[in-house]
Design a protein that fits this description.
alpha+beta; Glutaredoxin; two-stranded antiparallel sheet; 5 helices
Length: 158
Amino acid sequence: MNSIHKFKVEGIAGEEIDFARYKGRKIIVVNVASECGYTPQYQQLQELYEEFKDSVAIVGFPCNDFGGQEPGSNEEIKEFCTTNYGVSFPMAAKISIQRRPHPIYEWLMNKSLNGSMDSAVKWNFHKFLLDEEGHLVNALPSGVSPLDDMILEWAGLP
């Protein structure tokens, strides 16, 4: 099955994030870090989430693989995101992408598994866009703002 809906991951506070609950909604999966030049994208992701939360799910995956820019514990990361950016979209527990890729990232990065495309994550805030059926439709590098016109149009900006 080439859908992200088959995945369940641990949330940042120990809860379960079941991607099946996002059926019928578009999904953005993004690897995040608290000490990165792109960290202000948390605010943009939150704005996008608030505007489109009925039709677009956002799930952040903290990762320390790129420049050691996410050294904190899950609790520290959650506190940082909430206090500094008011993040209310779901956040997964801290993962690895490069060394031993988390299964969801292994799926996202490999066409042989996702049926759509290969995409290497080169830095923090790489965005994967998935359609309402959970199929991968695009991968965008860190420098693309979550509020870029391309993402807003994909999300359903009227």
